[in-house]
Amino acid sequence: MRLGVCYYPEHWPESMWEDDARRMKALGIEQVRIAEFAWSRIEPTPGEYDWSWLDRAVDVLGNAGLQVVMCTPTATPPKWLIDRHPDILPVGADGRPRAFGSRRHYDFSSPSYFEASRKICTAVAERYGKHAAVAYWQTDNEFGCHNTVVSYSPAAVARFRVWLKERYQTIDALNRAWGTVFWSMEYRNFDEIDAPVATVTEAHPSHRLDYRRFASDEVARYNRMQVEIIRAHSPGRPVAHNFMQLFTEFDHYKVARDLDVATWDSYPLGALEEQWYAPEIKAKFLRTGHPDFASFNHDVYRGMSKLPFWVMEQQPGPVNWAHWNPAPLPGMVRLWSWEAFAHGAGCVSYFRWRQAPFAQEQMHAGLNTPDNRIDIGGSEAAKVAQEIAHVLSADADANADVHGKIALIYDYEAKWLFEIHPQGADFHYPRFAFEYYSALRSLGFDVDVISANAPFDGYSMIVVPPLPVVPADFAARLAASGAHIVLGPRTGSKTPDLQIPANLPPGALASLLPIRVWRVESMRPNVTEPVRLDGTGDAQREGYARHWRDLIDAVDERTFSVHARFGDGHPAYVQHGRVHYFASLFDDRLTESLFARIATEAWLTPAPCGDSVRISRRGKLAYVFNYAHEKHVIEGVDASRFVIGTREVEPQSVAVYRTE
Ligand code: GAL
């Protein structure tokens, strides 16, 4: 458990650097991330590097006893490079190149940019690869930010054709897989295939899905090039990338495979404002963020990181980029920091050391105000630093890995597929995955968020949010896991080519769950369908279905239990052995009560904690977070077991106690 900060020496007079470094150290910071946007200062003119200022900055930090996280500066190609190679600019769906003047103005498929990136990464890695102060690396910055994964440039289309050829080998195979006979869309060779854009009505969905898969692979290829350069020049120093919160535009599992540390950038208030949450939820958690949002991301990135994951950027105060930018309540920066550690983080690094008085982010807070006084976030970070020492001394195991008994499957292609082929306009995959996660968290469970291809050993319950395309061995691995399996609607509903399976959904999962989804319907946001659990009349056991209904037949009724039905009598929740199928997305309360019931069957013990208090376990410690506006009292824990706080947890505060 360590603290870090993002620092931009190039934004400040050199006369400030030593004092900055001294104050960082005094505050309890150990790691400083630098240089991710500094290309124009590192290489002010083509081929002429100016290392002098960066050498001095690294030395100042190192001499103060700080470790440097060195970044490659490829998120911001300088003006001269763009002028020399305009083909670096990504092309939008409107066919126009996006312009220079902000950041991330590059196309992952541009051969000139690949080459330029190779050069600058090699230069930086050669220069600092073995520097004593440089302990970690970050590739680029936030791949895909500002909608930059997909480009429709000629370079991208050329590479897409190669990608298709590798995937399908022959044009006949592609035509069959996509079903291009429909509307006379058949191709005679790969060179005839363009990007799926600017068509009269919707472009072919399989074509679109493959374009997304291709664009995602381009990100992985680009990152891999950088990682290989860094490893060659800086052996033994872990390489990270800073992913974004709830970002789904490329397959993060594939990119993370090449990294040592998956890190992410946590802005809980900006996220609450920008995501799907209902107005009353936005109002309720306005200055705290949603209690499950940061932790969902922690668990996503923990699941793909080889070393403990990090928060590379932690919101320190108001941000600048959401539609509205409230200030966190006092206590929240500390709470968010502890929440990250409770979920297994190795480092929490604040963005940024000092608020910049100029340019796009001048309204974005830092740990210090622009006139260099410590801000609330800075004081709270200092408090966390002191508390870390205390926690580490209380439990030798405090840095232990975190493992839940429940796994939630999380998938990137599912997001693209439902976006391309929604069938109901608000079928939003990350939202549904988040809602399942949130229901499990409100039952007090620790949850591992993992890929459908990850091992399933050790789980008592595996929850699968709508997963249209399942890996070929998914059914066999689920069966072998011995866990209780919960499948959300639309699971197994498509083949990898985006066709309806020959045996109808759940397709390849029919061996696990002998049902047949013979009809589906989507439901408008203002429409719900009642759901009644069999055998009970009490209101507790009733709820409603939203968004979607699968209408199912049981192939073999003798081996089946129908536990809940829709108002018109169709099965809503069925069970076959240890496999449970939800034929719709239920309201939050019903989802939670079904998960509680299934967890109990799986020998787990739910401990409901409401919508504003959360508990997490790491090592021998339990961490309790109070997102509510009133005090929370922890029952049944002796006062002598508290390491931080007491049984009475104030609003926006944290308590930590020994579990044994
Ligand atoms: C992140 C980005 C940072 C900064 C920050 C502001 O997305 O990596 O460079 O822009 O947001 O909140």
From TrEMBL:
It holds the Pfam family Glyco_hydro_42M. It is an enzyme of class 3 (hydrolase). Keywords: Glycosidase, Hydrolase, Metal-binding, Zinc. Its EC number is 3.2.1.23. SUPFAM superfamilies: (Trans)glycosidases, Class I glutamine amidotransferase-like, Glycosyl hydrolase domain. InterPro entries: Beta_galactosidase_Trimer (IPR013738), Class_I_gatase-like (IPR029062), GH (IPR017853), Glyco_hydro_42 (IPR003476), Glyco_hydro_42_N (IPR013529), Glyco_hydro_b (IPR013780). Residues 405-604 form the Beta-galactosidase trimerisation domain. Substrate binds at R103, N141, W321. One of its GO terms (cellular component) is beta-galactosidase complex. The active site is at E142, E313. It catalyses: Hydrolysis of terminal non-reducing beta-D-galactose residues in beta-D-galactosides. GO terms for molecular function: beta-galactosidase activity; metal ion binding. GO terms for biological process: carbohydrate metabolic process. Belongs to the glycosyl hydrolase 42 family. PANTHER family: BETA-GALACTOSIDASE GANA (PTHR36447), BETA-GALACTOSIDASE YESZ (PTHR36447:SF2). This is Beta-galactosidase. It comes from Paraburkholderia franconis.
